[in-house]
Write a sequence for this structure.
């Protein structure tokens, strides 16, 4: 069995982690080709190379558009696959078009929606996505939505496509066997609150910094640690400086021991304005029982034990932080473990294969 998995880059955001879990699941029973549209920039996938059934291929450019052109040359050499997996709208549409033109053959093309396109984008950018939906999505055998809200929005905005393809909601998986036991020593001398993600507007880190600033009056011993890198670093650093929080709010960038930070934090926070579904929330739940999230995606309110805050609500975030910091949340371990076990990669794949064989 041959499987092709295509991604824009070799970074490990939420969508990429799901595709990596899929590769890990199949790697003992299939030959898997993983193709990145852009040049190699990390070593985050190299651990898969210990299995001889997996090959990693990289594009020649740092552009997704040029990478798609390069992908076409690659595909023309190896045209037939049992499964093709992708999880980015432009790639989904491009692959669907190639299948429609019979430039590539596959038994099953499984695509995943990675973000709430119709809430997140507008204007020319949304038009570009609509074009990819129109030209390529009718070739998809199974379209996976992360939440019922995402599925409903897709059907509402694209009814003519929704009637032609199989659309199912499958909650994001988490591979607990890949989560290393965190260390037990302190990362900082003081206690801290942690958040993680790309430093972009959608993640709402500016809101979290404002909330942390107000929290300082009652919890002056706390630090705030925001893990990740992105284009808004300088803007966030300016905000931190203006609030005189340079010694309190830390931006360490990307770290290899993210679960250590989650495990040892007083509180883990998802402050996003909008998400498809934040995988980092599941990772936080695997390590900590003090977890807060904004209502940034559908189905978050179904996660028992997670403290919920409205998007962009600074005062609400402050109040939730105060409540959790002063509460015993140990029972959340039972609730979180039950939820996470229901999201195993094996159960995810079983649902995919079941829907494909309906």
């Amino acid at each position: 069995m041959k499987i092709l998995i295509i991604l824009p880059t070799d970074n490990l955001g939420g969508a990429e982690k799901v595709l990596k879990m899929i590769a890990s699941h199949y790697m003992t029973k299939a030959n898997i080709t993983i193709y990145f549209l852009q040049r190699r920039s990390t070593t985050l996938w190299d651990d898969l190379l210990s299995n001889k059934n997996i090959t990693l291929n990289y594009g020649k450019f740092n552009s997704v558009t040029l990478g798609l052109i390069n992908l076409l040359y690659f595909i023309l050499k190896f045209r037939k696959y049992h499964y093709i997996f992708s999880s980015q709208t432009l790639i989904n549409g491009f692959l669907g078009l190639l299948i429609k033109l019979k430039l590539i053959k596959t038994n099953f093309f499984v695509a995943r929606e990675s973000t709430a396109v119709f809430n997140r984008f507008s204007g020319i950018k949304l038009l570009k996505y609509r074009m990819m939906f129109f030209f390529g999505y009718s070739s998809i055998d199974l379209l996976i939505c992360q939440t019922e809200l995402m599925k409903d929005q897709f059907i509402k905005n694209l009814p003519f496509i929704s009637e032609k393809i199989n659309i199912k909601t499958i909650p994001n998986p988490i591979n607990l066997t890949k989560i290393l036991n965190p260390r037990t020593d302190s990362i900082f001398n003081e206690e801290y609150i942690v958040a993680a993600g790309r430093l972009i507007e959608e993640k709402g880190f500016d809101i979290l910094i404002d909330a942390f600033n107000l929290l300082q009056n009652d919890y002056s011993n706390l630090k705030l640690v925001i893990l990740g890198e992105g284009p808004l670093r300088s803007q966030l650093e300016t905000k931190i400086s203006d609030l005189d929080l340079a010694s309190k709010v830390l931006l360490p960038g990307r770290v290899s021991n993210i679960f250590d930070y989650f495990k040892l934090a007083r509180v883990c926070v998802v402050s996003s304005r909008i998400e498809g579904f934040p995988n980092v929330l599941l990772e936080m739940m695997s390590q900590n029982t003090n977890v807060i999230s904004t209502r940034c995606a559908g189905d978050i309110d179904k996660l028992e034990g997670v403290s919920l805050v409205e998007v962009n609500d600074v005062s609400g975030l402050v109040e939730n932080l105060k409540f959790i910091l002063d509460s015993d949340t140990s029972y959340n371990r039972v609730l979180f473990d039950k939820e996470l076990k229901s999201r195993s990669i094996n159960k995810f794949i079983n649902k995919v294969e079941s829907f494909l064989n309906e």
Observations:
- The first helix runs from residue 14 to 26.
